[in-house]
Amino acid sequence: GGDAGATSETHAERRKRRREAQKAASLATVEEEAFSAITDRIPERPMGAVESTSYSLVILAALGFAAAVLYAAFSELIFSPKEYTCFSKTLRKIEDDPRVTIRLGTPMKAYGTESQNRSARQRIPHRIYSDDQGREHVQLQFVAKGPSGRATVHADMYEDSEATGGWRYHYLYLTVESPLAQQVVLVKPHQVGDNEAVV
């Protein structure tokens, strides 16, 4: 019989605690409503036209900057700039030319400039200009190295959009530095024929 009394007291205590919790919750609600009533009476300062315009300009500038960064990263990864397209075509051409392979050997490595800095080696020195016929030319200069020698490659290419849409050489020559200093001309300036074939 004593256990039943203890259990009923526990039930009574639970009911009491629930009532107190409900009272506390209702008091908190009343206090929040009173606070809301007070703060609702505080007038909000209207945003001026100048302030809203300046916020809009800051947001637009941030979005523009983010778009520029994304475009630069995307174009660097996806689109190959003209100088890299010309570099790849020229490297393939000199790797296939016996006048070059006999002097430098195979396999060949090519890079922008002689440097310990990897970024500097990957950057291809170039110049883009338009000739008197309105064609855009890409002038390149890079280092080619093989097991037998080393040379600096000089090339001037333009895109022949009228004929086939490929790239043509205005000139292409190598300044061989080792094993024997000499110049090897693969395409002479203004040469017409097989050597100026579209690549």
Question: How are the secondary structure elements laid out?
Answer:
Layout: H1 2-40, H2 49-78, H3 82-95, H4 98-104, E1 109-111, H5 118-122, E2 126-130, E3 136-145, E4 150-160, E5 166-178, E6 182-187
Antiparallel strand pairs: 1-3, 2-3, 3-4, 4-5, 5-6
Written description of the protein model:
The chain is α+β, with helices and mostly antiparallel strands. The chain has five helices and six strands, in the order H-H-H-H-E-H-E-E-E-E-E. A hairpin with a 4-residue loop joins strand 3 and strand 4. The radius of gyration is 38 Å and the shape is elongated. It starts with a helix and ends in a 12-residue tail after the last strand.
Concise synopsis of the structure shown:
The protein is of the alpha+beta class and 199 residues long.
Short descriptors:
199 residues, alpha+beta, 5 helices
First-residue to last-residue Cα separation? 105 Å
Structural class: alpha+beta
Summarize model confidence as the mean pLDDT.
Answer: 78
Task: Count the DSSP helices.
Answer: 5
**N-to-C SSE series?**
HHHHEHEEEEE
- Helix content range: 40-55%
Overall, the morphology is elongated
Number of strands: 6
